[in-house]
Amino acid sequence: MLLAIFLLCAADPFTTAAAAPTPYERADRRSFSLGFGAGQMAPALDVNWGDGNVFLSGGLLLPLVSNGEMGSFALGGGPHWSVTQKQWLKLGFFFHLSPGWSTSRGGSTGYPRYEPTPGQTDPVFAIGAGFSLILTLPGGFSLGVRLPIFGYALAPQTIAQTTLGIAYYYLFAYTGVPSLTLGYRF
Questions:
Q1: What's the confidence (pLDDT) of residue 73?
Q2: Could you state, in order of their start, the residue ranges of all structural domains in the chain?
Q3: Cβ(41)–Cβ(63) under 8 Å?
Q4: Over the stretch 63-101, which tens digit does the pLDDT of each residue have?
Q5: pTM (2 decimals)?
Q6: Range 134-166 burial, b when 16+ CB lie within 10 A, else e
Q7: 148 forms bridges with which residues in the sheet?
Q8: CA R_g for the chain
Q9: Three-state SS for 169?
Q10: 181 forms bridges with which residues in the sheet?
Q11: CA-CA-CA-CA torsion for 176, 150, 171, 75, nearest 10 degrees?
């Protein structure tokens, strides 16, 4: 008991309370973001933890322009590092999975084991990696740029056609991953 009283009394009476955080320190503490992918009309959820980032988004543009015959979503994450001393600009890379669907119009694929019937919907899984840059301003406004760089799409149509798997990757990755995200970080 006497030790506790001594320690309380030994504190420097002239020290001030912890200073209020600067706007940039507050921006660094913001970890949850709701945004909207400008290019592919994708609502996006973004979560930071330490030096990592996870995102979830769903592209609306591809289903709209394809009349619902194609579409994709994205789930990804990876490490991010501060580019500036104030930690409001972060650069990183990410891995992602973009599940989607593709509806066949029929016709020959050139692959005898897979001849789709008209109206048949097949799953597509685009798996890949890319780079990202995330800016968080002190007021909470955030701007994110994510660029899928390389990967491959797994689908029944891509079994024997490597180039189609690569083309499907870029189609489904760029319509699912929020390439340019504008939002607010809480």
A1: 92
A2: 20-185
A3: no
A4: 888 888 889 999 999 999 988 877 788 999 999 999 999
A5: 0.77
A6: bbbbeeeebbbebebeebbbbbbbbeebeebbb
A7: 130
A8: 23
A9: helix
A10: 37, 144
A11: -20
